[in-house]
Each structure stands twice: as structure tokens, then as C-alpha cells.
Amino acid sequence: MTAYAIAHLREITPHAEIAEYIERITATFEPYGGRFLVHGVREQETVEGYWPGDVVMIGFPGIGQAREWWGSAAYQEIAPLRSRHIKGDIILVEGVAEGYDPATTAQALRDGLDGDA
Q1: How far apart are CA 111 and CA 107, in angstroms?
Q2: Residue 95 in 3-state DSSP?
Q3: Residue 38 belongs to a domain with what CATH number?
Q4: Residue 115 predicted with pLDDT over 80
Q5: Residue 108: its pLDDT value, please?
């Protein structure tokens, strides 16, 4: 099942180390089947709420590969190049299975309410 590394980058202080990080990151995730899906889009359209900053999204074949990449020596070596100059949040999340039906989730929610609605 596809998994994603998603970063919400807010406070960015331009620095040469960020350029080096960007130059080197692809080589760290390619061995795990990763690829950029979204990279630092500043022109995103916020349609509800408040979304300051940029978003980066990397897709992986599965959550195992995403975790292996995150913990890899190659990525951990370059991570400080980013974290010293960019504040934000990063998550690893598994996608939904092929054929996912949200009605099943809604029914489970209704079943859990047991008349509390």
C-alpha cells in the first residue's frame, strides 16, 4: 500500500545548506522507491483554513520503505542541513487500500456512537 512522507515547512531561512540538502535528497529516497509528488509549492491554493509555508510530499511503495528511508544513514546525514534552517512538521502516513470505501468508516463511526448522536 502506498505511503507518503509529508512535510509542512513554515519558517524558512534561506541558506546554502538548504540548496545542498535539495541537491542530495533524491539520492537518499530513490533506493527505497521514493519519488517527489509535490516539492515546495508556494502557489498552493488554500481553500479552507490557514496554511502558511510550503508542502513537500514524497511517495513510497509502502510504509516500510518510508520508515527505512527516514531512518537511513544517508538521509540522517543530510537532515541537519534542512532542520537548522527550516521549521516545520514531517509525517509518514500510509495511504488507503485500493477499493477503499469511506462508507465503511462512516458506519464504524455510527456504530461507535451507540445512540450518542
Answers
A1: 6
A2: coil
A3: 3.30.70.100
A4: no
A5: 92
- Residue closest to 5 by CA, chosen among 61, 43, 52: 61
pLDDT of the residue at 66: 98
Instruction: Count the domains in the chain.
Output: 1
Residue with cell string 544517508: 74
Residue numbers of the domain that contains 44:
3-113
pLDDT tens figures, 11-59: 999 999 999 999 999 999 999 999 999 998 667 888 999 989 999 999 9
Q: What angle do CA 29, 63, 84 make, to 5 degrees?
A: 50
Q: In one letter, which amino acid is 5?
A: A
**In angstroms, rounded to a whole number, what is the distance separating the alpha carbons of residues 31 and 28?**
7
76 φ, ψ (degrees, to nearest 5): -60, -30
